[in-house]
Amino acid sequence: MKILLTGATGFIGGHCLRALIQQGHDVTVCVRNPAKLYQHTSQLNALKADFSTMQNVKDWLPLLKDIEAVMNCVGIIAETKQQKFIDLHQNAPIALFKACEQAGVKKVIQISALGADEQAESTYHLTKRATDEVLQSLNLDWFIFQPSIVYGEGAQSMALFHALAALPVSVLMDGGEQMLQPVHVDDITSTMLVCLKPETKGKQILHLVGANPVSFKTLLEQLRLRLQLKPPPSFSAPHSLVIPFASLGKYIDIPALSADGMQMLLRGNTADKQPFVEFIKREPYSLQEKLINHPATIAEQWHARLFFMPITLRLTLAFLWLWSGFVSAFLYPAEQSYQLLVPLGITGFGAAFSLYGLAIMDALIGIATLCRYRFKYLLILQILLITGYSIVISFGLPEYFLHPFAPIVKNITLVVIALILLALEER
Question: Bridge partners of 146?
Fold first, then answer.
């Protein structure tokens, strides 16, 4: 079958792509960056397509020639400057589905979300719901998947949950009594393959859920046991405090942590599994079967414990630059600073210019580090500056190189932190 798949470099889309290729389907993928695809077979045709700009039916029609089925797996957890819910969850997929109707595509599968219904409140859910409603109005053989939290290899949400479980203190929103029913990604791909069978009738909304509901508190407890960690102290925090705090996720480069995500968690994420069982003709996988009963690998333990380390290192580095600029400009006696510059051959106006100019530069670097402004190049600049400072001071003020407090040698640690962040930026 000739299938067009969107979002193939994402978590769910990637698993669906592999399942389609294994079943022998001829797949055309539409992705922003085809270079991210590691599958290269004769069954795969990769096209560059950006949902942020492909908002009209005419943008999609040329891509649908001879296509028999379309599966839309594009989705974001949180918005960025370049990616908005209204574009990726609503405008682009609606244009795609209308183009499918015009092009005579036989089947359309839409990955929506459990909770994209009349009670939807979050922007995530509202945009998914709007697209689902348009798709239902079209003359297509459609299937709308509304999964609970999806887990499996590469899942961002479950990675965050592991990280939260690994914290030394467990903070639970409203006591952590919110109910979830996580579904394994293999159940998603199995459902997709059932939908693609010629005998499977369309126009169905499918609630894809796991075998059993579990409270958020219990889930974290089970994940902590899986990580081979002892139970931590825990306390409850009201959702009125947790949700605003979670909105900082996009600023600290943890998109899975978001206000929308907390609102969806607060609402709960469960459904009756029986219609799903009848559709796939088996029980969905349980958390115990696919995750909890499998001890975490060393890599998973490291990832959970170090999940929040990048933001911690970045904030530390930003604080150091800001503190250096503030102390140099306002706290440390200027005359003593000028005396330190004399052995370096800097006196008079040059001393004042160097002192306050470098203080301003340090403060600007600190602010830029907080904002992740052109972060890769900023880190390279910091490495060069710290190395340069260290070399100049080592030759001009060698007593500081040999000082028992090691003010120069400690710069090696800062360079290593910058190198670690630079390596993580390559993700």
Answer: 207
